From TrEMBL:
One of its GO terms (molecular function) is DNA binding. One of its GO terms (biological process) is regulation of DNA-templated transcription. This is Bacterial transcriptional activator domain-containing protein. The lineage of its organism: Bacteria, Bacillati, Vulcanimicrobiota, Vulcanimicrobiia, Vulcanimicrobiales. Gene3D superfamilies: Tetratricopeptide repeat domain (1.25.40.10), Winged helix-like DNA-binding domain superfamily/Winged helix DNA-binding domain (1.10.10.10). InterPro entries: AfsR-DnrI-RedD_regulator (IPR051677), P-loop_NTPase (IPR027417), Sig_transdc_resp-reg_C-effctor (IPR016032), TPR-like_helical_dom_sf (IPR011990), WH-like_DNA-bd_sf (IPR036388).
Amino acid sequence: MCAPAGSGKTTALLQYAAAYPRTEYVAARPGMTIAELERIVASVPTNSQLIIDDLDLALPAAIDELLKAVVSCAPHAPRLIVSSRSCRLLRAQNIVARGFGSVIDRTDLAFDLAETQQLADRLGLTYDAKDLAELLHVTEGWTLPLTWILRSATEDTRRMRDAFERWSSRYGPLLIEFVAEHCSRDTGMRDAFLAALRDRAQCTQPVLAELAAAGCPVADVRGSLRPYRILRRLATRSLVKSRRAEPETSQPLALNLLGRFACRVGDRHVVFARRRDQNVLVCVALSPDARVTRQELIAAFWPDVPQAVAMQGLRTSLSRLRRSIADAAGCEAERFLQIDATISINLENATVDARRFSEHVEYGAMEERRGELESARRHYAAAERLYTDHLLASEAVEPVLAPHVREYMARFGMVLDRLVELFTQMRDLDAARTYERRGLPLRKITAALQTA
């Protein structure tokens, strides 16, 4: 079991030990030697299993010797379950590749939508689907902050709405301190991780790969590494407050593209001076990694205009766009929209419903390939709930955005097809028919588009 501190490893292992007979639990202590580990292993009865929690606290040489004994298939050796913040210390890739074990990682331990809802219900909190989605977005299901935020909400308003903002102002620095203390035994790695939180220039992929291997809170999102979203958000907020005395919003930019268009920061809507400015923002939001070049925007929105005129038109549009966001947010727009050689939306401080929809679709397909049909069904159902209507259904869609509309329509059709199939396999025919009826209008629209 390899995951950063605060992922719930110890809680899961203690619950496992209590639930299964002939299971021994031991918590490693700092500097534990191979002789001590061997005595623990020898004390476990035959046909039992042994849990060693926080094995990374033992001496590295002791960890190596213990794992060598495991893969040598020593007679009468117990089944071994170990936890560590660092996969590298456990040489997990070697053990898995040789068929001697498997890995439970941060994604397996993270809270999903159903588990977050269950915990919120047990705590007696009030919430809606948007509150759940926003909390999962900012925490990424990381056990420590997610449960901390929910427990904190029970102490004041008992509402999940804005629970992160209330919690972060009071407890956010403590989470950073926790990470600084626990993210790595290597002080050099710890300092490198804190530097990466403060400065984007330090967040190169090779550096982040080293930090992730050392057990720091680094997420791998579709092959791209980055620090956990909540830590970047807290670190950015702390850095800005130390540099400027002016008040700054802590609310994310929320961009709703499915169904009725809306763009707001907290309760304040972003008012666009021109429809073109709005469409430029939408184009950026729908692009890979929410990032486009200036030339890509010029080709999309000023295709038949002389280059100098097009460049001036883009600069003017970006300037208006930045001003509109700043007016709604009450702070500099750079918190949400970064404009330099490329134009990008800072997804650590912004939520885009269409991107969340796509993530659920991708995770659903991935889980289905792994044979995790119940998890796939939950992701597809979450995607279906997000798809309140077709992309930009309330807007006059420019030609450059029309392919995106068709693309999301096709994805939604696939989601409905998979839900019908999965619920049919579960013999829940009422649910299957519900999703089948949901797809009838979509098929008519698709047929009309093909005919046109």
